[in-house]
Amino acid sequence: MPALHMVILGRQGSGKGTQSERLTAAFGCIHLSTGDVLRAAVAAGTELGRQAKAVMDSGGLVGDDIMNGIVRDRLSRDDIAAGGVLLDGFPRTSDQADALEAILDELGHSLDVAVNIDVPIDVVTARMVDRGRSDDTLEAIQRRLELYEEQTAPLLDWFDARGLLATVDGVGTPDEVFERIVSAVERTRPQPA
Ligand code: AMP
Q: What is the pTM of this model?
């Protein structure tokens, strides 16, 4: 099977992180979480981290130029060229989706599938309150959910129009959801000739 280039989408708290780990193990691709990249930059006290911290704490979105630059840099590395990638937390806006398409195209790749883990808003809110991460105040959680509906949910149409969208029911045990995702990926990714 050729290297897989996939996106995982879902509201914060939909189980994207857990499922991303399982998927990268199953498909042998690199997990690129833009939230993890930003949190590492904050922890390391870099210029990027300094700029990103206030935005992240308020539940806002870091600028498209910064995010597109981070993704371009990572996707250009050899490990991803060889093994493929699972993008988690990117794209979040239609500008980022256009940038992703252009970056992959420049590198001679294309997107194979966008998995959408569907979990209702009340369920994810309860999960995130339980999770208790430092940037998870109720206000920030609500702001992120609003931004998701406003900016990220419309991306589902962007992927769907390209025949790349695979929506799975994200309510269930991690094993159940994982099985649904794997079948959806196999159904949606381009079949080898
Ligand atoms: P996540 O771990 O994906 O929930 O990301 C945590 C925070 O990092 C988000 O609430 C945003 O502030 C920021 N972030 C992560 N990815 C992006 C992105 N693609 N565009 C803008 N901001 C992002």
A: 0.91
22 catalytic per annotation: no
Q: Tell whether 144 is covered by a domain.
A: yes
Question: Omega before 154 cis (within 30°)?
Answer: no
Tens place of pLDDT per residue across the chain (193 aa): 778 999 999 998 999 999 999 999 999 999 999 999 999 999 999 999 999 999 999 889 999 999 999 999 999 998 887 889 999 999 999 999 999 999 999 999 999 999 999 999 999 988 888 877 777 788 888 888 998 999 888 999 999 999 999 999 999 999 999 999 999 999 998 887 6
* Domain membership flag for residue 71: yes
Pocket-testing residue among 56, 75, 135, ligand 1, by greatest number of atoms within 8 A of Cβ: 56
The verdict on whether 133 is a catalytic residue reads: yes
Amino acid at 107: L
The CATH code of the domain that includes 24 is 3.40.50.300
**Atom number, ligand 1, closest to the C-alpha of residue 60:** 12
Find the distance separating the first CA and the last CA of the chain, reported in whole Å: 11
